[in-house]
Every structure is written in C-alpha cells, then in structure tokens.
Description:
This protein is α+β, with helices and mostly antiparallel strands. It has eight helices and twelve strands. It folds into three domains: 11-88, Probable inorganic polyphosphate/atp-NAD kinase, domain 1 (Rossmann fold, 3-Layer(aba) Sandwich); 92-111 and 155-265, Sandwich (Tumour Suppressor Smad4); 113-153, no CATH class. The chain has helices spanning 11-20, 33-45, 62-67, 73-82, 113-125, 130-135, 137-149, 208-220, and strands at residues 27-31, 52-56, 84-94, 103-105, 108-111, 158-161, 164-165, 172-176, 198-203, 229-234, 236-249, 252-273. Strands 3, 4, 5, 6, 7, 8, 9, 10, 11 and 12 form a ten-stranded antiparallel β-sheet that branches. The protein is globular, with a radius of gyration of 18 Å.
Amino acid sequence: MDVFKTRFAGHAQHELAPALARDTDMIVVIGGDGTLREVAAGLIRAGAAIPVGFIPTGNANVVARDQGIPLQPDPAISLLTIGRVKSLDVGTLRTHPQAEDSVLFLAMVEIGFGARIVELTHRLRSGRLKTLYRRWGDPVYVLAALRALASPAETSFQLCQDGLLLPGRFKAAIMANTRCYAKGWAMAPHAHMDDGCLDLVARRRTGPGILLRTFHAAARRTRPPQAFTRYHQGQWFRLQSGTPFTVQMDGDPLPAANWLEISVLPGKLQLIAPQ
C-alpha cells in the first residue's frame, strides 16, 4: 500500500489522482470534502472509474454524512472491505461564458445568505480565530452568521432551469447534489447523489424571519416554506445579474460572480458506501 500526502491546493487533482489512475485498483482518501473533491475531479479528468474509499477527517464531512459513511476512523476503515461501490453524480460549474473548463463539485453551489456565511467564516478562520476554528468550528460559523445578518442586502438575479427562464428575480439559490448541507442539516431534503439531477432550492425574498424559517426547516430536514421558495429538480441551471453575487461551492468561498452555469455529470464518482 502506497501513502501520499497532498502538498498544496490542487495537488491531488492535478498530480496525484491522474498518476494513480494509471495502475491503481482503489484509492482511499483520508481528509475532508475538499480533498475528496480534488481526487474525484482528477480521476474524472483522467477518464478513470476507480473505486474511492473515504475516511472523513474534515469539519463538515457533508458527503460522508449524506452517504452514511461513518465519521469515526475504525468503522470507516472497516467499510472499505464490506461496503459497495456506488456510482454517484458530480456537478459542474462555470463562472464565465467564455470559460472553456468547468470546476467540479460534489455537494452544492450556493448563492446568497449561506454563501456569505461561508465567506465570512473563511475570513475569521484565516485570522485571529484560526485556533478556535481548529478546535471548535461551530462557534465560528455562528459568529459569521450573525455578521452576515448585519451585512448588506442580497443581490437579486435571474435564474434559468433546463433552458427555461423562471419568472421574477431571486435572492438566494442552492443547486444541491446532496441532502446534507452541514452537520446533518438538509436544505434540499429530497436530493440524491445517484438520481442524475440537481435539486434547486431558490428563494425570492429575504429578511430575518424568512431566514429563520428557512434554516429551521433545514435543521428539521424538511422542505422550506413554499410561500417564498421554489423547489424543483433539473440538470442545467444558469444564473446572472448586473451586480456580482456571493458564491460558495462545497463549503468553500468563490470569487463574487454575476454569471454562473451549473450542470450535472451522472454517475461519474465511484464511491465505497454502506450496503
């Protein structure tokens, strides 16, 4: 068994995974969702359908929670021999109409309030709260959420789904490949990683009361209130606005954008999961 350690962002995607794809029967990822995404992207770019085992050691572990992979090391290691290989969907994201290559994601792309929380959390955990985040990540997210409530209003944008322009404008949206959002919450409770679709949860209105009801539904793993949200499945989405909006992908902040194109690649990730 060979052991490799990632040395920099993109190392697993651009170097390790493509090299291992040539003569490896299985790859085991020990890390968080970001490392798993890099390995999956590298294998997909190389055209390799190699089974991937996952021993989650991140903070959120969204994919592991979604697929029932144990969060403790010993049961996760045991799963490598008793689990089954599942063909899971992967999402693609382009941030500019002229962009030739797309970025791959596993869990979701989000625009709006939740993305602002992720952006603020990234700033806090990169600054004086770095030690606090390493020991207890949740208080940093709570502090970021409180600061997001006091930040400027969310940018409105147009939204197309499968070539159809949806009426009106929206304040927030999630294109979800997983039910799990963070720590077991579910913004898109009917999403499945093996159905060939992404679940759209788009919100037209904002405000503390609406946000409270939205996150309360997510904590209960129920659909958000239909009075101000649209919940549908689709395979292709485009968002655009004259003003840049905040974006997060799989829990990582991305540069603000005013154009996004999101689609799904069915069954591209071979992940070892419980029977």
